[in-house]
Amino acid sequence: MSDSTMPSSISSQQDEEKAIQPPVVSESPALDSALPPEGGLRGWLCCAGGSLGLFATLGFLNAIGIFQTTYQETLLKDYSSSDISWIFTIQLALIWAPGSLFGRIVDTYGPRPVMLPCTFLCLFSLCMTSLATEYYQIILAQGIGYGLGAGGIFTTCLVCVSQWFVKQRGLALGITVAGSSIGGVIFPFFLRLVMEDVGFNGMVRYTALFLGIALVGAFFLLSARLPPKKWDSEMAWIDFKVFKNRGFAFYCIGSYFVMWGLWAPFDYLPSMAQLSGMSDSLALYLLAIVNGASLFGRIIPGHIGDKVGYFNIIVASAFLSCIAILCLWLPFDYHSSNAGLIVFAVAYGFFSGAFVSIMMPCCAKSGSLETLGRQIGTYQGVIAISTLTGLPIMGAILGRQHNTTYMGMQVFAIVTMFIGSVFLLVSRNVLAAAHGTWKY
């Protein structure tokens, strides 16, 4: 899914970013000491903890295609693809929707008040999933329970890493989000091999144990750079006034449409490959290939974005993700090719990974520092709505075609991602013109 982008930034973090903005340069020792150290041992350990956290949350969610295919063939075979996709849609939406709440808690009290209960909730929800026999039980456990816990961990990881970096934030967050790509590589193999040995329910329990080990590591490695502070009851959660900033408004619209179609290959590529004659094992391993390629897509473009501008990177990655579906996935709905689907998995993994890793740095840069916290909370709400509706729409389209062709779903993804890419380009041009530079 990952593998992302940032949850609510703190007011003092806004001040420190102001301090490094040209042309104002301060030589005050007190001000300089308040700036992030751009890493250091604790900063990079925090980055490692963030990678572990995203490995166990968004990385696990990147393997949703395994569950989609398994549910369609076994426990939920009487339900439509659209019905089943709601399980993962709720998970993805809850990654984003409560980000403003969790971000403010981390900003105020540090990471542990969020990490501890959310880790327990994730593990408990997976154990309940292993006992579920009805659709509504899976929705409650795997959809709502795990999604809410994963959302808290996801937000905590990104907030903590952001506190340690400003100038290298694109690289640091790219490395952090790359943890989700590593999870997306490992989990398709892990889930399939364990399921063959102990069955589906046993596989879910072993997965909970595996995730628990990673989350314990994240719990001890994550740290807040800034001390706890008093809760600010006057801060707005979501502020629609930020849409008066045209650059930010266009960015939200563009991100909404791109995210509508972005998750299609993660959910439906394995089942399409099986339908076209690919072996079950290779079809499921396509997810590992997608996520393996996204590992590089989430690190390299973020580092380049620190130099040439985040918006230049996100516009290019959105257009190229759309082109990959059009030119490398859609044709194989007519002429199946194992090699062709593998090429698509590599290309799409890299470009979509770049988009996810650069989303939140772009959000932070699309408005003023004075409204940073509000615009990030508002942006997360927009993305939550997008992820809540995209997969069910594509599942309904697939159901109307009796699960025999994926063309309608692919065309939907292409059109929405192209529209989103155009709006992102408009946003980039508006903001670049306002700041008088092409590096935006």
UniProtKB/TrEMBL annotation:
Pfam families: MFS_1 (PF07690). Gene3D superfamilies: MFS general substrate transporter like domains (1.20.1250.20). The chain crosses the membrane at residues 43-64, 84-102, 138-159, 171-191, 203-227, 248-266, 282-301, 308-332, 338-364, 376-399, 405-426. Residues 1-12 have a biased composition (Low complexity). GO terms for molecular function: transmembrane transporter activity. GO terms for cellular component: membrane. Residues 46-428 form the Major facilitator superfamily (MFS) profile domain. Residues 1-30 are annotated as: Disordered. Its main location: membrane. Keywords: Membrane, Transmembrane, Transmembrane helix, Transport. InterPro entries: MFS, MFS_dom, MFS_trans_sf, Proton-linked_MCT. It is found in: Membrane. It is a multi-pass membrane protein. PROSITE patterns: MFS. Belongs to the major facilitator superfamily. Monocarboxylate porter (TC 2.A.1.13) family. This is Riboflavin transporter MCH5.
